[in-house]
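sorry for the late reply, my laptop died twice this morning and i had to redo everyting from scratch. anyway the thing you sent over, i finally got around to it. pasting the sequence first so we're on the same page, its 227 residues, then the predicted structure underneath. double check i copied it right bc i was rushing
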Amino acid sequence: MLSLLRRRRVAATDDDDTRGDHRVPVRIPVTIEKGADCRKAEIVDLTMYGAKIYFADIGPREPLCLNQLLSVRPNGGRSITARLRWMNDRHCGVQFIVPMQAEMVMRFEADSRLWLRSRPSRAQVDLRAEVIVANKRHVFRALDISIGGARLRHYGKLQAGTPLMMSLDGMMPLAGYVRWSDQSEAGMIFNRLLSVESARHIANISDISPIWTREVTERHTAADILS
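ok and here's the structure:
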């Protein structure tokens, strides 16, 4: 794979089109920064010359313009300067000003395999969930939960894209947004990973197998490597 990653010239120019480069699937939490505007995001595929990015943080933001320079900062890592090449509602493509070393691309791919081998396991629960939306408090039910999100019975009160804060019994509040919604249920994505301590608490009060909490711990370990 190293030879595939190195098959194009090292220098990146404004006219480069890197969509044909060998792309590797990854999951790298990052912050996209443009001036005072910061957005939570994830790199979902990667080459030496650029990346496809999924925006996890939504809501009113300063508009991004094609070809402008952005700072892509992996959590706990150094910022990477990149140029915005394309964008839609939830994804964008960026071109790195200085190509990433092939060895670093391979490391990110290897470290992401734990995340990408399957979807995170969801623990089946039935918990009271206090949810704050636009400064209004609602009481819903949490039906299942994973390290990255939860499914809520919301009685038609939530819409896709809505930021919210959820509190479960005895846990710190979890911030996130609504990924999908129908008339009775909604899927919530957390802005931060569910902590190991919270997972253990949920397992204790819901009689969940310790296999689930072990997976949460393993995925935190992978996230620490990525950062």
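Residues 210-226 form the longest helix (17 residues).
thats about all i looked at so far, will dig more tmrw
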